[in-house]
Write the structure tokens for this entry.
Amino acid sequence: MYSPRIIATLVIRNGHHVQSLGFKHYLPVGSPAESAREYDRWGVDEIVLILTNDSGENARHIISSVADAIAVPLTVAGGIRTLWDAHNYLSWGADKVALNHVLVEQPDIATAVAHQFGSQCLVASVDVWRTGNKLFRYDHWLHSASSVELLDWIHQKIGAGAGEILLNFPQHDGMRIGMDSEAISQVVQDVGAPVIACGGIGTVQHAVDCLRTANPSGIAIGNVLAHFEQSILLFKEGIKTAGAEIRAAVKATYNSHRFDPRGCPEKLDDAKLDELLFHRIEPELI
Amino acid sequence: MRLNIGIVDYGLGNVRSVQNALERLDCRVFLSRNEETLAKADALILPGVGAFHAAMHEITTTGLDAILRRLAIDQRKPLLGICLGMQVLAEWGEEHGRLRGLGFIPGEVKALVPGAGRKIPHVGWSGVALRAAGKNLFSRKAEDDSYYFDHSYVFDAPEKYRAATVAWDDELVVAVAKENVMGVQFHPEKSQNAGLRILKAFTQFTKTC
Amino acid sequence: MKVCRRCLYTSLHPLGLTFNEEGICSGCTVHDEKNLLDWKARRSSLEKLVEGFRNTSGQNYDCIVPVSGARDSFFILHTVKKELGLNPLIVTYNKHYNTDIGVRNLARLRTLLDCDIFTQTVDPDRVKRITRATLRRFGNMYWHCLAGQSVFPVQIAVKMKIPLIIWGHHQGLDQVGMFSHLDEVEMSRRHRRDHDLFRQEADSLVSDFDFVKSSDVEPYRYPHDEEIAAAGVRGIYLGNYIRWDTKAQHERMLDLYDYEAAPQTRTFDTYNDVDCWMHSDVHDYTKWCKWGYGRATDHAVRELRFGRLTREQALAVASHYEEKEPLNMELFLEWIGMTRFGFNFNMDQNRSPEIWKRNDQWRWARQEAWGEAHRLAAQNPDRLPENKDGCVFQTRKSPSVCDSPDRFILIGKGEYRSPEIGTPVAV
């Protein structure tokens, strides 16, 4: 058995790592490779790059600089229209490619990519739209829900060769209101492929709630990871405290701390801090 | 003493990360399919991502099967197969019909069987149970480590060649070793420090050869 | 290349910049939050946050406050000590480029606000070798200041187990809207490396070619993740909880604490860089060489966003200052042991090709796209309501002297006269 993956999403616009609010408003954070490098150091389980408008040489530079900075799996989404694009991304350093709109425009492309590169390289990325109790595939170009029911769409794509499913929630993206755990749970229980969910995480508690309720293979966290030091570590610590099995990736640990509602560490007792004064803490060596 | 590590180039597999990881361990790394060049390496890495039949097709049409047999089996050069690179070390693979592998380690590559709560492909991070054959790859520290897996097929090797396993319905073999030939189903180059420790162990084994 | 319709920042800003559908940049949209947020509520959040960090044993400080002889240090320390009632340890990294005003301001700060202070002064030979390396490699002579100022407080926090560090404003948030105030962004090593240090941490500078050894950069190394996690070190920014306005804040400090302010070479802001010979002089000149704009633009944009300058006034004042020759270049060159020719050579390697080109006289000129983008933005500007306070910066000089042969000297400037050279070598 494997533990749920804590995944970092980096939205990229004009070569910058940006914070995304509903994929409409963006705030510049910095260099994609520097963010990826830091998340990797903090023990992230996987990184997803979402290219919103870079292509060609810019895309090559972004993907290869991120791939060189990390030692974890890299999935790249955005801008894949042809088999050749998928090939390029994989040769520039991606381990997996995520296809979204192109699955609508070119229904055969999923099979072609899976056949050429293997199902384990192919992630079907689906935007989810909730209307009351019903879940639909969201159509980005029309800015509205399509009439295609979500589960039907997902089963089609798995049948066509997708190895994993990435669920995005535009109604939650950047809002920090938590995830749509009910929707995620429905999908997880219905499909045989691993499901990763993305969109809405603002606090560690949101992540804990989603894992507990929906049990996805992984949750992807975006903007909030850039807000405080060692954020990945803090997420993992909070999730572990809540009882989930989480991969302890690095030696650094917050296991003596309590946390505030956001997930940031509260001050240790002064007695404990005094004890640490003469305690030498060694860095991790390979 | 800096080791020379040759990565076998047969067009499959993301070699960049393997190269970066080995360079972090202060090795000199090159990519080749040429026997004379590969012979200069102190050890070889066989990467691989994708399908068994595609890998074996490339390996046999380029003559790499004979080259690797001469270097790894006859000359006993250390060889580490990663993911698909581990699977092609087997005698047989069952993807798209029964196909011969390199046959360096006994056993057969079979499809993973989905079960209750078991998603296919097997994707994600998992710890492993260490076995006797894995003593050259896994240190005691590895008991606490997790590695990144992404596969739909598994190398079913006999007991004596199992280096590490993972719990599934019964045991899943995730690492194999027979003398100087080893393989890991997971991706050490994608497993952060835990993976680096595996690669370091392999380089240290190489120094003893 | 694109220019904001409201302020003067361009899409080539080194920190990155995004634009909304109306062509207004992320820096301006985040600045608008200053007029929309409930600052009373945010102040309460701050009070609640720091409350949890008070020391209860009586044997350690409540927090660390990084200071200098300028840059809102008085306002930050006044807020922390007098208003929040915390007991801070103040720390300062010696920039080496100190002016006498800066030394007096710092003396006044630690005396009038009655705080314990730790100072780090790295030996001049090391600092010069590192600065020669950073100038050669990426056209920057301020790296050691940025590295030292950003890491020394963290090192002390880890060593002395004082987990809370209180900074003033977040430069990325203020300039380009990197974060919303509501994100309550905290200090991170990632930001330091990417933006403060131009992606060059201490170990990147070690090189035989530059005569920089691993031990030379030890003072600039960030503590390990393990140490930071064990102590739970966090750095917060007052600017997320207080409606930050550096001009207004400094003017309060001029009266409250006799803060000294003086004219600068390359900007009209007389408050922020008064402690340093280099910041609004040679260092700003290197920024101009690389990125095609200087501090005067940053300050003009800041004042424009407060409504104290119109767009036209901002452009005029920025243009006025940006081509000013640095007055203290000779001082720097003598200190570092370099000729002007050598300095220019280094800068020529680092000019951004998107911004600069050589014209027919082989002189550096900005690309046409720069001028065109600015003209386009000026055709349909977005205007803010005017702030009647205007934009006048004061100067203030204190009559007091910090060194004297007849009195106790808390920390003096000191001077060494070498008998061979015969001229004073300032320390």
